[in-house]
Input
Amino acid sequence: MFRPRQRRLRGLSFNRMLPNMLTMLALCAGLTALRYGLEGKWQPAIVSLVFAAIFDALDGRIARLLQGTSKFGAELDSLSDFIAFGVAPAVILYLWTMQTAGPVGWVPVLLFNVCMALRLARFNTVMDDDDPPAWAKGYFTGVPAPAAAGLVMVPMVLWFQVEAEWLRQPLLVGAVIIVVACLMVSKLPTYSFKNIRIQHRFVLAPMLGVGLLAALGVSAPWLTMTLIVAAYVATIPFSIRSYRRAEAEARELATAADAPSDAPSDSPVANDEAAE
Output
């Protein structure tokens, strides 16, 4: 009996699988941070979150460089971000201090995860829509997930350095959680940093800065993390101003392009005046 030849499925290349592998590493790092939090090992938990942020920063960029972007990878990245930068930091802070506030201590933790889910859902929706204008591609709407995880862990990172008990007060930590949660779902434009281009004559300075940052990270990791978070917060006012300026310039250009000329060359009036 004749059997039709089945078409063999083509395998995926390693280039297409590499970004998803990095996403899985970010997810594993986030879950490892949660495990350390359950064991009360706060410093290894923060280090695991840092590795999750590094893997998350690499997967998208490598996917674009290797042309390995896919819908599956985008959905997997959102699920990984929710676990690594939503569930893990919030639960760690709950175990660290928020549980001492009783049932009320769970409210900011729950709010943070709800806002994280809403932010990621909005981000995926924007990706499915039409491409944004060129001037808006260098900005996020609201604080992105990895930055939110770093901001919300500031009280614990400061506590590592000074061990002041007021940094562990549920009222303070809860206020930080609520503020960061609101920043995630806000309409504030923040820099994405992925489209920044550096001129060749200025390349040496960023390279030296990375080396200095690495040296500080090895010798004083918690101080370095604090400085990075502080520098990011300092960029928010500049991002708002530059976004509004770019938006105003784009609106002016659109208005000038749509405005009709006073005397078109093909109109009868213009032709009569030219004849005279």
User: Anything to note?
Assistant: The two ends are 91 Å apart (CA to CA). Residues 54 and 66 are 18 Å apart (CA to CA). Strands lie at 139-141, 189-191.
